[in-house]
Amino acid sequence: MKIVLIHGQNHKGSTYHIGRSIADGIGCEKEITEFFLPKDLGHFCAGCMRCIDDDSLCPFYAEKRCIMDAVEAADLLIFTTPTYCMRASSPLKAFMELNFTYWMVHRPRECMFAKKAVVVSTAAGMGTASAIKDVTLMLSHWGVPEVHPCGFSVQASGWDAVAQAKKAKIAKTVQKLATHLSADRPPKVGLKTKLLFAMMRMMQKQGWGSSPAETEYWRQKGWLGQKRPWKA
Questions:
Q1: pLDDT for the residue numbered 158
Q2: Which of 36, 57, 89, 96 could form a disulfide with 50 if both were Cys (CB 3.0 to 4.6 A apart)?
Q3: What pLDDT, on a 0 to 100 scale, did the predictor assign at position 208?
Q4: pLDDT, mean of residues 114-142
């Protein structure tokens, strides 16, 4: 199993440790690749819109491509983000914006419809649900059919300060999730994903896409006809 972790921070705090524990707990043979934001992608979207016609025209394409090649090849994606101001971290939000052409409304990739994902967030207090929602929304629009939210209020500013009883409880949850993800079971594309795809397909057929280049992308994929990006 190929696993890619994308961390919404450079430091290795509570969120990092939990995300890494999930990856390490996968019981099958695995290959783990990690990226840290903003170290591996330290830019904000410039709003130039050149990627609408061609992703390679993005001024940060080379750095994005390094990450997204690994993402496209992965079987399991694990996103981690501390909860900052009740939302996902700024570096992770920037990552989402820099890769917005992966959304179904633009140029979705077939490989995304066959992936599993986990979104991990921690907070000293409240806010993990809204931070996780930022990322799960992106993943649903990428077409990822199986996404597991994993939020914890650790009541500490760092992993070393987390109470042992809480760490034990987290470890139990993590192991249960890792065991579930270890099963050799492909994700099933559900009705919600299919309906979202159908809406975006209708937009492209009606000529309401962002550019002729995107509509042509859909046409070449055969999605304006009978083909779909998931296996029947």
A1: 87
A2: 57
A3: 87
A4: 96
Domains: count for the chain: 1
As a whole number of angstroms, the distance between CA 106 and CA 191 comes to: 20
Q: Which pLDDT band holds residue 209 (cuts at 50, 70, 90)?
A: confident
The pairing of beta strand 31-36 with beta strand 2-7? parallel
Whether residue 137 is contained in a domain is answered as yes
Average pLDDT over residues 193-213: 93
Extract the tokens encoding 19: 């995300």
**Cα 63 to Cα 50: distance, rounded to the nearest angstrom:** 16
Specify the 3-state DSSP secondary structure of 153: strand
H helical segments located in the chain:
14-25, 61-73, 90-98, 128-142, 164-182, 191-205, 212-221
Beta bridge partners of 34: 5
Residue range(s) defining the domain that contains residue 116: 2-188
